[in-house]
Each structure stands twice: as structure tokens, then as C-alpha cells.
Amino acid sequence: MTDRSRLLRGGARAVTGLLVTAAAVGGVVLMGNVPLPSVVHEPLALTVDTTQDTARTLACAGSFSELGADPARPGVAIPVGEATTAVSGEASGTATLARGEGTGLPSVVFAPMSQPLAAAQFQAIDTENLRGAAASSCAEPSNEQWIMGGASSLGFSTTLSLGNPGTVPATVSIAVYDENGAVDSVQTAGVIVAPGTQQTVSLNGYAPDRERLAVRVVSTGAPVTAHVGVAQSSGITPFGVSGATPQVEPSTSLVIPAIENADGDDRGPNDSGEGDAFPFIVRALAPGELAGTASVRVLDKNGKSTEVGEIELAPNAVGELRVGTLPDGANALVIDADVPIIAGAAGSADDADTREHDFEWFAPAPVIAADAEVAAPVVAGGRLVVVNPADTEAEITIARADGKGKDTTETVRPGAAVVLDAPANAILTSSAPVHAGVRYVSDSAIAGYPILAPDPRDGTLTVYPR
Fold first, then answer.
1. Mind telling me which residue stretches traverse the membrane in this protein (predicted)?
2. Which H/E stretch holds residue 22?
3. Span 353-366, pLDDT tens digits
4. From CA 415, how far away is CA 319, in angstroms rounded?
């Protein structure tokens, strides 16, 4: 092959290579600018009912515990008598919690999460050292909760009962707050509560000589239930007892239903010459570093709202408002604050003829979601109070958990708190969010508790399978 032939063949190959390269580049550019068909698959989402095959557990406090019943062990709380329990809904199982001594063991009830279930306990007490009535809601175990009420000053004894219905031990940290702030000596106080047992401790021993008490309970290992029992004496004469139900978390708006201060209108004014002899008491605590102000108003059955005062709150200190005369017909208390708070309110009952007295610490009630069926147990002699704090009407339906009898309906005005007839095993449904509680009042005894609706955030979970 001549040199000329080789040159022509090499040139042809070069030209061909350039053409192929140019075509490839052009194809790439064309593919980058021309839309091509694509296939899109939406992620598969499955909604799972988290209440299926799960159980709800409620634990009651059991019989009231008395400090000093045994002179040889003045710091030991000894249970006295027995409490009665009202249950609304069908329990799938029951149990009791063991404790060191005493009768009236704390009861535990179980039911599937999807079914309405609630329980409450009531105890009338009349011994040499204690007299009055105490009531509280049976609550679900929790890893954190707050309780307002009680004192450890002269004449007062306050106990904290911790129940562990679970299967593993619980390590419980107790923090106590008084009128001056956090009580430093108990910030790291710990109590071990074995599975299936209840432990009762004396808050007088943790924080003696305090005029106002609030407690934070935090548990690890297993969630627990917490209840406070308060007893007061005047000299050697019993002056009253109370049980207090816990609040799950601080909030800027709280509703305390079923309040009362039937402290004897015939007795005359207090020492200052004005108001009731035993004023209605409201206490609040702002946990954390911020101070705040809480405004307090009461609601009646007609929707009338009456401002009764304000509480100035220092950080971590229990503030107090004394209402000299509770307005007639007041059935509920609303507390609005500019910082998250916990709160409680105490009312009295007093019989001028027998000179017998009693008091009760009323606790906030969580909201009952619209159209939710919520069990509302009513102890013997108790009355159901429903509170509608909104600006629209709420239609209330009350049925029996066993399905017997006819349902009843009642319309609750905006901003009203009404007393409704209800059976012991009531199921309450409302067309709008409401709060509810139960109160018991006689001539010389008073007690009450909130209706604890299940957390509305529970129920469903969205799962995206791979």
C-alpha cells in the first residue's frame, strides 16, 4: 500500500470517528432536553390501630393512710378502713397491689384500650384521729405527674402513695415545692416501688413545717400512679381529710370542675369580719425559671363567669388565693395563666350543729374530646358536673355502660358548669369539648374527683412499609 493510500484511509477513519463522537454528544444533549416517560409509585401508607390488643390499666389509691397511728412509729403511714370503688365500663380483669400492712388494698382494673373504662374511689372515715370523706380518681400509671394540695405545718399530715401495677421495679424521684420554692433536700429523693406493690411515704418527713405543698413525681423503669392524702386536726379534734388526684403536666389553662364550699352559711363571717368562716382556697405553681400571673374565675349553670382574683407566681413557689365568699351557684373554676402551671382548689363543709368539719382538694380535669365516649364513674351520693368553657353550646348524652335504660340528653350553655343526673356507670358523650368531675357533699363531709378521659393522641399510627 502506497503512502497516499495509507493517508486517505487514516483520514477516512478520523472523519468517521468525529462523526460518531458528534452523534453521541448530540444524542446526550437531545436526551437531556426531551422529556421521557417515567413511572412514579406513591409510597404505601398503612394506618394501624394502636389500641388493638392493648390493655388500659387503672390503679386506685386504696384506703386512707394515717400518720402517727402507731406511737412507736410516728413517721409510718398506716392504712385505716376501706374505700369503695365505682367502675364505669366493663373490666376484663382486676387485681390488687400489696403493701406492708393494713386493710383496703389498692385495686387495679384492666380493659382493652378501645373500650371506655374509668374508676374512682370514695371513703368515709370516722376514727379517734380522722373524720371526713376522701375521694380520688383511679389513674393510669405515668412516668411524670404533679399533685397540688396539703401542708406539713402544725395540725396537718400529708402522705404520698405510689403504686406500681407493672411487672418491673420503678425508681421514683420525688420533688417537693412549698410557698418559698423547691425544697432542696428532696430534689433527688428516691423510692423503689416493687412490681405489684404500693409504697406510702410521709411528706411531713421530707418537707416539715410547710404551709403549702406541691409534688412532682418522676419514675423510671416502670410508670406509677400517685395520690396524696391530707389529714388535719384542731388540737386533738379531727378537722377533715382529703384525697388529691394528680395532674399529668403543667398548662396555661386549667378547668377544675365540681367545686363547692358548703362551709356553713349560718356560722357567720371569718376573723376579719367578712366572708365565709373557712374561705375557698386556690393554689398554683409555675415550675421552671419564669414568674407569672394566674387569673381565677368561677362558672355557674347559666354561663355566668365571675372573676374572683389573681395569683402572683414566683418561679417554683406555691402561690395562693383565698376567696372570702365563693359566688352562689359556682360549679367550676377556670384558671388562665401566662406561664404553664399546676393548680388545685380546696373547699369545706361544716355542720354548725355538730361542729363537725371537712375539706377537699379538687384537681383539674383533662378535656373530653368532642364525640368521644368517655366512662364517668359516679360514687354513691356523688353528682356529675359538666363544664363547657367554650363559646358554643355542647349537647351532652349520658348512657349506662351496661346498655340498660334510656339515654338522657342535656344542652350545656357556652361558659356554663351544670350538675347532671348520672348513674354510677355513666358513659358521657359531648358534641363539643368539655370537662367533667364528681362531687360529694353532705352536712359535714365533702369530696370530689375529676373525670380522667384517655389521652386523645393515642389510637392510630401511620406505617410506611419498605
1. 12-32
2. helix 3-33
3. 888 999 999 999 99
4. 26
Three cell numbers written together for 452: 380522667
Q: Which residues contact 62 (CB under 8 A, 6 or more apart)?
A: 79, 83, 97, 99, 104, 105, 106, 107, 121, 161, 198
CA 410/CA 421 separation, integer angstroms: 10
Closest C-alpha among 227, 261, 265 to residue 247: 227
pLDDT in tens, 169-185: 999 999 999 999 999 86
Assigned C-alpha cell, 159: 402522705
How many whole angstroms separate alpha carbon 117 and alpha carbon 427?
9
Residue 393's CB: how many other CB atoms inside 10 A?
A: 15
The CA-atom distances, in angstroms, between 438 and each of 63, 347, 399 are 19, 14, 16
What does the chain come to in residues?
466
Q: Could you give the CA distance from residue 140 to residue 127 in angstroms, rounded to a whole number?
A: 31
3-state secondary structure of 413: coil
Q: What stretch of H or E contains 383?
A: strand 383-388
- CB atoms under 10 Å from CB of 323, counted, come to 21
For cell 399546676, name the residue.
342
pTM: 0.85
